[in-house]
C-alpha cells in the first residue's frame, strides 16, 4: 500500500556496488529470459512474490512462476520476485542501508501492495523475517501501518500458518491461481474507493469472503494445561472457518507458459509441467496428498502443447512431468510415447520425478530415457517392513519392489535409489532394520538377473514429521535420540554386511532438524516467539545443514518458555482442538481420526480413483470431484515448418 | 561437420555471470536458435561447444571471449551470428563468427588487453605506483586458487601498463566522478596473471589501493603484435584463406536456414 506520491526508483545502482563482494552475484541481477518488468505507474495493484529461500532453490518454484505469469498478464497489475539473500549480501545491505529488493526491476519490497510469500516448507520462516526486516516492514502485523504491504502467506505450510500468525496479515490455502486474481481485484476496488477503513478495511474485505485467513481477526483461548480451548472470530462478518481453494480445470490454467530461464545455476534445470494435481493414494504421512485432493488431471493434449511451447521458449533440454505420483496419470503411457516420438533425435530428455513402484513399468522407463540421459531410478517404499507400509498406507509389497527393480537391472539400469522414512508411528527397531533386508534382496535379485556384480542401490532415509491435516496429525513424533539410534543400527548392519554391504549406499540426516520441523509444523501461535528469538540470534536458512543450528532453536524455545516436547513427541487426544482446526482443507475430521485408528491397526485404504469413495469429505465439502481421463487422444507429431 | 569460431562479449550486469553460467546460457540459446549443433557420442551426449582461452573472471566484463561450436550441416557465419545473438540475453552479445581455419585458436590467444576503471582513485598516486611497477623486475603476489594459496610473479607477464585519467558513471555512483584508468597488456602464462594480481602488485610496490571495487574489462585477446605491443584479431588467420584456411566449398550454404 505504497505511498503513491513517492517515485519508486531502481535500487540496482546501489546494489551493483555491493555485488563484487558477494558470492554468486548473478543471482541478484535478474533479467532472466521470460521475466517481465512492467511500468510501475501504470499498475494499480503491485505484488512482490517471495520464495523464502536462496535464489537457486526459489527460482524454479512452480507456484511462484505460475502466479508471476498470471498476475503480470492482468492489466494494471504487476508482479515482481524476491528471494532470500545470503548472509554475505545481507550484511552489506545492512551496512549500506540497501533494502530488500525485487530481482525484476530492483524495486524496494516495501513499495508494493502485497508481499506474497510461498512456503513449501516451514524452514523458510526465519528467512521471511530477514526479508521483512531488510525491507523496513515491521515484523509483527500489529505494528504495520497503511504504507506497509499486506504480508500474505501461501503454499503447503500455510495450511497451518499459526506459528507465523503474528508476522502475517493474511494467508491463503490451496491453489493460488484464482484467488490471487480475486485478491487483486479486491485491492484494486478498495484503492479506487480511496482505501476506506485503511489497512483493516482491506483485511476485512478479504476476510469476509471466507477465502482469505486474517489471523488477527481470530482469538485463541487456552486451557490451563496449555491445550487450545477455542479459536473464534473476534469481530462480526468474519467466518468461523476459512476454506482452501481448488482449481477444477487444469486445462484452463496452462501455466507456466513462458518458464523463467535463469543465468545462475539452480536446483532444477528443466521445464516442468504439472500433469495432474492432487493424489488419493492415501499415504498417511503425506500432507501434500491430503490437502490437494481431489485428483485433477491435465489432458494429454494440453500437456503436449505446454511442453512444446515451454521447450521452445526456454531452450531447456529436460522436461519434467510433475505431480505427486506421475506414473498414475491415466494416459501416462501415451504421454511418454508421444513426447519421446516428438523429441526423437533432439537430445531432449524426459523425467518423471515421482514414480510409484507399482505404477512403474519398464516400457515407460524406456520411453523416458530414449532421447536423453538414462538417469538413475528412484522409488519410495517409505517403510522398511510390510507392517510399516500398512501403517502408513503405502501399499507397495516387497514382491512389487523386487519385480520392478529386477526388470530395471535387466534393462540396463545399474543404480536404483530407494527412499524411506524413520520415526514413523508404531515403528520399532526391526522395522528400520528391515530397510537393510530389502536393500540386500534388491541387490541379490539384481545380481541374479544380470549375472553381474556391478549393481548398486542407495537407500535414502528422511526423518518423519507428523503434519497437520493428515491422519498422523495426532501422532507422537519420535524423539531424535530414537531416530538416531535406529539409523545407527541400520548403518552398522549395512556396514557389517560382507556380501552386500559394499553395493548399498546409505544417505540420511540426523534426527534433530526433524524436531524443529515438527515444532513448526504442528505449532500454534505461541511458537512464533521461538521463531523470532531464533531469528534475532542469527538464525537463517534453516533448510541448509550448514546454516541450521539445533541448539539455537532449543535455546530460543527455553528462553521464551516453549516446551518443544509438548509440541512434538506428545500424542494428541481425539477431542483436542488442534491449532489448524479452523482452517478447512476439506478433509472430514472424523474420517482423519478413523484413518489414524486404521493406521494403528494396520488397516489399509484403497485409492478412490479406482474403488468406491471412502468419504474423506473433500469432494462434497469443497464442491469438487475427481477429474481423470482417459481422453483417448494421442499426441500428433510436431509440424515441421 | 563444420566448426565455427565465435567472439562474444559480456557486458554490464551480465559481467556477474560465471563461466558455468555462460556455458548453460549458450547451450540454451543454441537450442532456441535451432542451431544444428553436433553432439558428442556416448552415454550422456553433450553439445560440442568448447570455450577457448581463460574465461574472464566473474565480475569482469569482456569484449573478447571465444568459443568454438561444431554443427552437423553447413552454416553461414553471418546468419549464425544473428541467430545466436538474438537468442542470448542482452549483455551476452555475439560480436563475430568465422568458419574455423587451420590451426588452433587457443594457440593464437597469446595475450589480453585489459582496462581497469578505478573510481575515486588518486591519479598522482596511481602514476607513482605504475612507474614503480614498471621499474620492478619481479613482484611476488599471492592469490587463492583452486589448488590453494599460490605465490607467483605478477610482473614479467605484464607487457605494458599505463595510466590515464577519465570519467564515467560507475557502479554505485549516481553521478559520474573522476576515475583513474589503467590499461595493460598481459601475456597469458601459467599461473595466469589477472588484473587483480596487478592491482595486488600496485599495492605491494606503492601502497596503492583504490577506494572502491575496480571495473575491469577485457578489451581484446589474440596473437601479440610486436609492432603495437598489443593483441591483434585472432580471426584474421581464419579469414585469410590464402594462408591455408580450410573453409568449406562456397555455395553449400542452405538458403533460408542457418
Automatic annotation (TrEMBL), chain A:
InterPro entries: CHP03960_rSAM, Elp3/MiaA/NifB-like_rSAM, Radical_SAM_N2, rSAM, rSAM_sf. This is B12-binding domain-containing radical SAM protein. PANTHER family: RADICAL SAM DOMAIN PROTEIN, SLL1084 PROTEIN. It comes from the Bacteria. It comes from Planobispora siamensis. Residues 265-507 form the Radical SAM core domain. GO terms for molecular function: catalytic activity; iron-sulfur cluster binding.
From TrEMBL, chain B:
Residues 3-195 form the DUF2344 domain. Residues 210-258 are annotated as: Disordered. It holds the Pfam family DUF2344. It comes from the Bacteria. NCBIfam families: sam_1_link_chp. This is Radical SAM protein.
